[in-house]
Specification:
membrane, single chain
């Protein structure tokens, strides 16, 4: 393989990686919107239970041509489960995007040495073109959304235990809520693993990494 073929190979890999990264960003934004809608739906069920259930059943009938007559607790648990699923998808996509920008930066370094010019279209340019805007968006993804998510989850599940009948549905909802909180904490730890953390957070994160190995 001559130098041109090597360059073409690396550049093709760069273009494909960039394409996959953009597709992942689109999916991430879609999942973010779905999470917001599902979370809002859970709170609306608390405030306007009858109207919210009617809207949910109408949506299912319109989209799937299926007429369902689930009770309040079943629908609530279904939405909790969907929230867990899309939260997992959202975190996976966002972690993938973070990793891809580092990978793109490495490829740009290789290409720069080949053409003897600085190439930083995506990787290194990610947080440099619009630093204030990028820092704000970065803060939302890494701090704002996870913290708001945990707060809303705790408020909602606490509300269920205080104001609703204690049944298997609430136990299921509580388990789902716990999974979401754990996922969110692990997500934040992953994003900030290169930051200086407190001693106990470092210890927990280290044990988690050893378990994964």
């Amino acid at each position: 393989m001559d130098e041109k073929e090597k360059f073409d190979f690396v550049y093709d890999n760069y273009k494909e990686s960039f394409k996959l990264c953009k597709e992942a960003q689109i999916d991430r934004n879609k999942f973010f919107f779905i999470i917001v809608v599902l979370t809002a739906f859970l709170f609306l069920m608390t405030i306007y239970p009858t109207e919210t259930i009617a809207t949910f059943q109408s949506f299912i009938k319109t989209k799937m041509n299926i007429e369902v007559k689930f009770n309040f607790f079943v629908i609530q648990s279904i939405i909790w489960f969907l929230l867990l699923y899309y939260t997992m998808q959202y975190y996976q996509k966002n972690i993938y995007v973070e990793r891809q920008y580092g990978y793109l930066a490495d490829i740009e370094d290789v290409l720069s040495t080949k053409i003897h010019r600085t190439l930083n279209r995506e990787g290194k340019n990610y947080l440099k073109s619009y630093p204030l805007y990028s820092d704000f968006i970065d803060w939302i993804y890494k701090f704002g959304f996870p913290l708001i998510s945990i707060t809303l989850i705790v408020v909602k599940i606490s509300n269920e235990w205080i104001y609703q009948n204690h049944n298997l549905g609430i136990i299921f909802d509580s388990i789902i809520a716990l999974f979401i909180i754990i996922l969110t904490i692990l997500y934040m730890l992953f994003l900030h693993q290169n930051f200086k953390l407190s001693i106990w957070v470092n210890m927990i994160y280290g044990k988690f990494k050893n378990i994964k190995k």
